[in-house]
Each structure stands twice: as C-alpha cells, then as structure tokens.
Design a protein that fits this description.
single chain; 366 residues; Rossmann fold; six-stranded parallel beta sheet; 13 strands
Length: 366
C-alpha cells in the first residue's frame, strides 16, 4: 500500500508557511512513505520558502478575500471558482486523501475543493483571531486545532503551533556557552535579546538602543537583531552590545538570551514560550490589535509583559525593564511561567492526528 497522500495549504506569509512546513516535516519523520504536496500561489513567500524545505509546490490562482466594497469584491466569486477548480485538479492528480489547511490565500480554495470530493479536512489556526478561510473551514470539519484555548473557533482543540525540532527540543542551558561565544557575548551576566522579526522593527530598535547606557550601567548584555535594512548606533563598550542584521539559526539566539524584547506574532509567541523565554511583547499596532491577542495568554500566565508601541521608549526600558533584568529570581519565575504557557509537541500531535484521519478514510473507502 502506498504512503498517505497529503495536501497542505498554508501560504503567502511566513506565519502560515512555517507551521505548515513544520507539520509536513513531522509527518515525514513519523511516516517516511508519506507523499506531501503543498498548494501555493505566486503571491507572497510560497515560491521562496516551500521549495527550500524540499516539498513539491503546486500553484493555484490567488484569491484575496475582500473586506471592502469595491470592484475586486465583485470579481471574487469568479476568481474563487477558478481557484477551486485549479485546487481540485491538483487533488485529483496527486490522489489526495486529506487536505490540511493553515490559512492564507490558498486555504479557502483547497477547503472547498476537498469538500466537493468528500475528502477529510484538517484545520490549524495559529493566530488568536482566526482568518476568514479557517472560520469557514471549521464549519466543514470537526478536525480543528488552534494555538491556544483562547482562540474562538468551532470544534477547536488547543495544541500549540508546529515548531522546528531545533526550537521545540532546545535545551537552552546546555547550548548557552556555545551560543554566547558565537555572538561574542560574555559567558556570565544577563543577556537581553531584541528582535523585531525578519524585517526588524524601528520603534523597538530606537527604544532599546536609546537605553544602551542604562542597560550597560546595570551590567546587561544585549544581542540586538536589527533587521537587514536597519542599523543601531551604539558605541563599543562593556558589557557587549552586539548588533546583527539577522540570525539564521534562532536556537542559538534563544540559548544565549535570558529575556527578549519583540513583536508578538504568533510564531514568535509560540517559540519563546516553548523554550521558556520571558519577554516584553510590543505588539504591532495594526490589524485591529491582532498581535496583542497572541501575547495575552502568556502575559496572563505570568511569562510576559505587554507594552503598547507608543509607550515603549528608552525611558520605559530604563525604568521598567532594567530593574527586572537584574532580578534573577523574577526572571526565573517568568521563565517558568512562559514555559508552562507553551507547547513543544504540536507538530507531532497534529501529524499523528492527520495520519489517523487518513487511515480512517481508507477504511471507509474499502
């Protein structure tokens, strides 16, 4: 008998693609015979990130779901019809046995094509506020999984977000000495990691670099991931303030750090809580406060603070973050709370469930 034939649909942004690929990797570890095909579109990062992870990519026409009354809205039904047809052709060609969707432009056509073929649908929602496609799909299936219990979605079971094993299995203590050497940090003393995501965040960069004197005066080292197009102006000194444009292997940055300042995208929140890193989350002040919702369960558990973008200033860092960072007991308490709020095994949990769904589907087809 051939291996399970799975089609995954989660594209456009790294926030959709990363958990999709992490799930696919977990399936392959559990069942190397699995045949996994990814659906994507020419918009966004699909054609860059998915092939790099070693999965075949089938492109279908993108259908952004319009929220405004305009010409694009009236064109949506016809465009969706074409995209569903294209997705269905892929499902037929690869003889798909299940569609696993993670949201994004590509998910809705995949869900509708699967429903027309009476194929099982499995949904994973990483964000605190589900998108249109996943809200619709949650009414088509009972196989629905979310990042946390705070996510409101029909039939949902909270499992966390699928992560890379390098993150999910990270032993920060064991890797700390090597990680700090890698970045030119001292072996001892607190380390604050600062990141604004893959492109950086100018507000965060300005606030933390502006507090460099207060941080140094308290003996706090800084690993500042500025983003590729940003720089911070901090003079060399002791303890180190290390600024780098990006980091390819984030497990080393996490192992080097004791505390983090960052935005609160879903993947960032999932990774930091999984490895037990407390944080000051500065949500991106867009999209109706969606990022704040991602961080709220961790803050409620005691593993994070949430600060509005406008309130996060050099003065706030000096008055609030510096005293926290030099209090090892408080940092340890927040670290333990963050870890309790996280989940390390969502990739395997979801992969096992999908493999069970395929097995049950085969039994029904006999």
């Amino acid at each position: 008998m051939s291996g399970p034939r799975i089609v995954v649909a989660g594209g456009h942004s790294a926030g959709h693609i990363e958990p999709t690929m992490n799930f696919a990797d977990a399936v392959r570890r559990l069942d190397p015979s699995a045949e996994i095909t990814a659906l994507g579109t020419v918009r966004g990062l699909d054609t860059t990130l998915i092939p790099a992870r070693g999965y075949p990519l089938e492109l279908i026409p993108p259908v952004p779901l319009q929220r405004k009354v305009n010409r694009a809205l009236f064109a949506t039904p016809a465009r969706l019809r074409d995209s569903v047809r294209a997705a269905g052709e892929v499902l037929d060609r690869v003889r798909a046995e299940v569609v696993v969707g993670f949201g994004g432009y590509v998910a809705m056509p995949a869900y509708l094509a699967a429903r027309r073929r009476d194929l099982p649908i499995v949904v994973h929602e990483a964000n605190a506020r589900p998108g249109v496609a996943n809200r619709a799909a949650a009414r088509m299936t009972t196989h629905v999984f979310t990042a946390s219990a705070a996510v409101r979605l029909a039939h949902a079971t909270a499992i966390g977000i699928p992560l890379r094993p390098a993150i999910a299995e990270l032993d920060r203590v064991a890797l700390r000495a090597e990680a700090r050497r890698r970045f030119g940090l001292d072996a001892n003393g607190p380390v604050l990691m600062v990141t604004g995501g893959s492109q950086g965040a100018r507000a965060i960069n300005w606030a933390v670099s502006g507090a460099a004197g207060a941080l140094r005066g308290a003996g706090i080292q800084v690993l500042h991931i500025t983003g590729p197009d940003n720089v911070v102006d901090v003079a060399p000194g002791t303890p180190p303030y290390v600024a780098v444009p990006f980091v390819d292997e984030m497990q080393y940055a996490y192992a080097a750090a004791d505390f983090v300042v960052c935005r609160s995208g879903a993947m960032t929140c999932a990774e930091l809580s999984a490895v037990g890193l407390p944080a000051v989350y500065v949500p991106l002040p867009l999209r109706g406060g969606e990022q704040r919702l991602n961080a709220e369960p961790i803050a409620a558990a005691g593993g994070a603070l949430i600060v509005d973008n406008d309130a996060f200033t050099p003065e706030w860092v000096g008055a609030n973050l510096v005293p926290l960072l030099v209090d090892p007991d408080r940092v340890a308490t927040m670290s333990a709370a963050a870890h309790r709020a996280g989940a390390r095994d969502a990739d395997v949990v979801l992969a096992r469930h999908v493999l069970t769904v395929v097995a049950e589907h085969r039994q029904l087809r006999k």
